[in-house]
Specification:
The structure holds 2 protein chains of 2 kinds.
Chain A: H1 9-17, H2 24-35, H3 48-67, H4 69-73, H5 82-107, H6 113-121, H7 139-156, H8 165-193, H9 197-216, H10 228-233, H11 241-258, E1 269-271, E2 276-278, H12 284-294, H13 298-311, H14 313-331
Antiparallel strand pairs in A: 1-2
Helix pairs in contact in A: 3-5, 5-8, 7-8, 7-9, 7-11
Chain B: H1 5-9, H2 13-36, H3 45-73, H4 79-84, H5 95-98, H6 104-125, H7 131-159, H8 163-176, H9 188-195, H10 206-219, H11 243-257
The complex binds fe (ii) ion (2 copies).
One fe (ii) ion (FE2) binds next to helix 5 and helix 8 of chain A.
Chain lengths: 332, 263
């Protein structure tokens, strides 16, 4: 997920060693506020670990929005009609906006956007694994909107009630747009499934390639996801990875079937007793390989982000120099 | 004109309107396509928002002009059909809008020089005797006014920013200037439409355009207008630069590869 903890065991150990000893009274009062479902605001006291966890989670979310513009941006110039081009442009623009709100939310925790962006470009910060997969046909644009934005909403709706005020408010705004993206993506897939043999082939192929990576977005299974307890206690995570994944599967499988798409999982079955769809095993080796940098597009994505940033450096410098001159003239 | 003149005389007003609307639509479509190439690669996050806005405006505008062109033609072609199933020879956009993005200075210079003409044209068109054309012009005018404002603010920033930004912008202007003459050089179609009170007389727009450019360049760290011995023309008659064909390859790919489908 955009917000799933993607750190390796080593990275987590390192972070744990940097632990700050907090005043137990303040800690207790802080926890009591969270237990009363109060929002924590930027000026309020908060434990250092809470602040750090939020910075990591929010900035990773912001990076995901920005990197996520690339696979979809790949099809803007090739969108097949005016209507589709306008929808896709507006969607990718929304994602840039999400990145902006989220970087601002992170900045309320005392870290500058530039610093966070540098961490991404230096390979120190993570972003969602899903954006390391390529968009090969037009159907991938439908599949991303439907599955990736769909998975993102499943994860983000509970975050609208997370304990950190600025993050919760950013999420409320973002979720509205994401659900719009999800519907448009599904509608684009449905249009392909109503179309020619070639279009249905494109759509099914996109489904085959995006289904499993979409399930992986929710992060490792609860059985190995050890760090969640603290985040749950702080209410910056409200449901476990597996709970959210199941919610997504249950919502999405019937949608696939409704438009004639097959779910690429021979073991998929509906459990009458539990009322849930059960999937076959997820290939977690693939997930960890992509996290570690070995996805099909990791290098392409980072190269694209770095070169946009590096090639934009003189522009940002010029804008700053101009603003300084203006300020000087005004002061004089 | 010579031998072709007889054909020209026999053209109907609707044929003229159709070709003129293609010109307006193609300008917006091609520049919108160029602007959308920046998405995901802009120099700053705030500019990601801006370039997608500009692209959205232009592509939306193109759709309006081309749909109207198709209705006037009356052969069942809509904006999508016209955008995707014409080759470069039938595209009537100005050469300036198809020039590749280059660096941000080049994009800004292209956007400023064109949008200033674009705004003047749209302002006049909003008083056109042709109500359908005037309606569209009135609808898009505020958007284009914003484009001018945006592009002008970047001319000022880059022109009066750093030495590097000034040099890059000057280089862009030097390269683009040869395409500015075409913006004020009407063809026979536009001349006839101007006589009918449908399109503006482009020649009357040039002085104001030039005056603003000179003033803004002067105030932007003293940018120079280059001497160009010969303006490059040809867009209105389908004689484009080498770049347009490649742009159309991308734009038209899906419709050409899978013709006649719904998307
Ligand atoms: Fe988003
Ligand atoms: Fe989205």
């Amino acid at each position: 997920m955009y917000t799933t903890d993607l750190r390796s065991a080593e990275e987590k150990r390192k972070a744990a060693r940097a632990k700050v000893v907090e005043d137990p009274e303040k800690l207790a009062e802080f926890q009591a506020r969270i237990d009363r479902d109060e929002f924590i605001e930027p000026k309020d006291w908060m434990p250092e670990a809470y602040r750090r966890t939020l910075i990591r989670q929010i900035s990773q979310h912001a990076h995901s929005e920005i990197v996520g513009m690339l696979p979809e941006g790949n099809w803007i110039t090739r969108a097949p009609t005016f209507r589709r081009k306008l929808i896709l442009l507006a969607k990718v623009q929304d994602e840039a906006g999400h990145g902006l709100y989220l970087y601002s939310a992170a900045e309320t925790l005392g870290v500058a956007r530039d610093e966070l962006v540098d961490q991404l470009h230096e390979g120190k910060a993570k972003y969602s694994t899903i954006f390391n997969y390529p968009t090969l046909t037009w159907a991938d644009i439908g599949a991303i909107g439907w599955l990736v934005d769909g998975a993102a909403i499943t994860n983000q709706i509970p975050l609208c009630r997370c304990s950190y005020g600025p993050y919760a408010r950013a999420m409320q705004r973002i979720c509205k747009e994401e659900s719009f993206h999800q519907r448009q993506g599904y509608e684009a897939m449905a249009a392909l499934m109503r179309g020619s043999k070639e279009q249905r082939r494109m759509a099914q192929d996109a489904m085959n390639r995006w289904w499993w990576p979409a399930l992986m977005m929710f992060g490792p299974p609860d059985s190995v996801s050890i760090h969640s307890a603290q985040s749950m206690k702080w209410k910056i995570k409200r449901y476990s990875n597996d709970e959210l994944r199941q919610r997504f599967i249950d919502a999405t499988v019937p949608q696939a079937h409704a438009i004639g798409l097959e779910v690429p999982d021979p073991e998929l079955k509906f459990n009458e007793e539990t009322g849930h769809w059960e999937t076959g095993p997820i290939d977690w080796d693939e997930f960890w390989a992509v996290v570690a940098g070995d996805g099909p597009c990791n290098y392409d994505r980072m190269d694209a982000r770095r070169s946009a940033h590096d090639e934009g450096a003189w522009v940002r410098e010029a804008a700053a120099a101009h603003a300084a001159k203006r300020a000087g003239t005004r002061a004089a | 004109m010579g031998a072709l003149a007889t054909n020209t005389v026999e053209r109907t007003l609707d044929q003229d309107r159709f070709d003129y609307l293609l010109h307006l639509g193609d300008n917006a479509l091609v520049l919108g396509q160029r602007m959308s190439e920046w998405v995901g690669h802009a120099p700053a996050l705030e500019l990601e928002m801006a370039v997608s806005n500009l692209a959205l405006d232009l592509i939306g505008e193109a759709q309006l002009w081309l749909d109207l062109a198709g209705r006037i033609e009356g052969e069942g072609r809509d904006a999508d059909r016209l955008a995707n199933f014409r080759d470069a020879l039938d595209f009537r956009n100005l050469l300036i809008v198809e020039q590749p993005n280059g660096d941000w200075a080049f994009t800004v210079a292209r956007h400023y020089l064109f949008s200033l003409q674009h705004l003047a044209v749209v302002e006049r068109l909003s008083e056109s005797r042709d109500e359908e054309i005037a309606d569209i012009a009135r609808k898009v005018r505020p958007e284009i006014a914003y484009h001018v404002k945006f592009a002008r603010s970047w001319i000022e920033r880059l022109g009066d920013g750093t030495e590097e930004s000034h040099a890059r912008l000057q280089r862009a202007i030097d390269r683009l200037w040869r395409f500015t003459g075409e913006m004020f050089a009407p063809d026979a179609i536009e001349e006839r439409l101007a006589d009918e009170g449908i399109a503006p007389d482009l020649r009357t727009l040039e002085a104001d355009w030039r005056a603003e450019v000179e003033q803004v360049f002067e105030a932007s760290g003293g940018l120079d207008i280059p001497e160009v011995k010969r303006m490059t023309l040809g867009g209105r008659e389908g004689h484009h630069s080498e770049h347009l064909g490649h742009l159309l390859c991308e734009l038209q790919f899906l419709q050409r590869a899978y013709p006649g489908l719904e998307w």
